[in-house]
Amino acid sequence: MNLKYVGLMAWYYGLKAIPRGPSYIIAALMTPLSLLFIVFIITKGELVKFAIVGGFVITVASVALSSAGDAAFMRLQLRMQDLYVPTRVSPSDYMLALTLSYLMFSIPGIALYSILGVIFHIFNIIAIFVLIAVLVLLVIATSSISFIISGMIKHVRNVWGIAAILSVAMTVLPPTFYPYNYIPRYALYVLSISPVTPAAVIAQSIFHLSPMLLLEVPVLILETVVLFVLARFLTRWREN
Questions:
Q1: DSSP class of residue 1?
Q2: Whether 4 contacts 88, CB under 8 Å
Q3: Comparison of pLDDT for 150 and 196, the residue scoring more
Q4: What was the pLDDT predicted at 107?
Q5: What is the pLDDT of residues 97-151, one digit of tens each?
Q6: What's the Cα-to-Cα distance from 40 to each of 44, 46, 49, 56, 203, rounded to whole Å?
Q7: Per-domain residue ranges for the chain?
Q8: Residue closest to 104 by CA, chosen among 28, 213, 161
Q9: How far is CA 23 from CA 30, 37, 59, 168, 197, in A?
């Protein structure tokens, strides 16, 4: 593994992108903050803690999913993957670097929801560490979906609409801003096709907002592994 490349690429494409594109940060936060506001108004604050916890999940997932357009642009227009063929950079290094950059790009949103979490007293030490693990798995899973999409797209103009649709469908429909036990169990299992669903269920459980559903833990792990392997297969250099 080329850790130097992974770190430099993640720093440049992740942290350095924050001051270069503040409008993208605002755009990434618009949906979770709008939903937070709607939940607060409709439920008169009763479900605001669910919306805050869900905000962590949807921020990380939406950034990674919407980045399918960037991945496709770099592959089809910039031909970046072709440049790596004669180098020591492997497809796994490339995927890991972009995945880490997506997580770094989510830092402003994570920081904002952390402040809200402190204000509403939802944190505890164990929950914080579990949430970090969940977000890491989630960004790997959702970034893998972005790589799968970008690897299958033949023209970059087709990816933006697909990424936008998936971002909404896979983050808003799952129980990110409402208790997962509000929906029938069979519907929850159907929605678990999206890795956002088990991540949201686990997050609600560790913050003691909803009962623990242990089945969703292996579901999230399995989906992360399967999606990453599939994405790795589609993210190939020409010589592969």
A1: -
A2: no
A3: 196
A4: 86
A5: 888 888 888 888 899 899 998 998 888 888 899 999 999 999 999 989 888 887 7
A6: 5, 7, 9, 16, 19
A7: 3-234
A8: 28
A9: 10, 20, 15, 19, 28
Nearest to residue 120, comparing CAs of 207, 199, 38?
207
* Torsion-angle region of 2 (φ positive above 0: left; ψ -120 to 50: alpha; else: beta): beta
Name the burial class of residue 99, with classes exposed (0-12), middle (13-18) and buried (19+) by CB atoms within 10 angstroms of its CB. buried
Each residue's pLDDT tens digit, 41-95: 888 888 899 999 999 999 888 888 877 777 777 777 767 777 777 778 888 888 8
User: What single letter denotes the amino acid at residue 106?
Assistant: S
Range 31-50 average pLDDT: 85
| Token couple for 160 | 């933006």
CA-to-CA distance for 189 and 170, rounded, in angstroms? 14
Coil vs helix vs strand at 120: coil
For 184, the token pair is 């029938």
Per residue, the 3-state secondary structure of 71-116, as one string, reads HHHHHHCCCHHHHCCCCCCCHHHHHHHHHHHHHHHCHHHHHHHHHH
User: Is pLDDT larger for residue 236 or for residue 187?
Assistant: 187
Average pLDDT along the chain: 84
Which residue type occupies 38? I
For residue 218, with 0-12 CB atoms within 10 Å meaning exposed, 13-18 middle and 19 or more buried, which class applies?
exposed
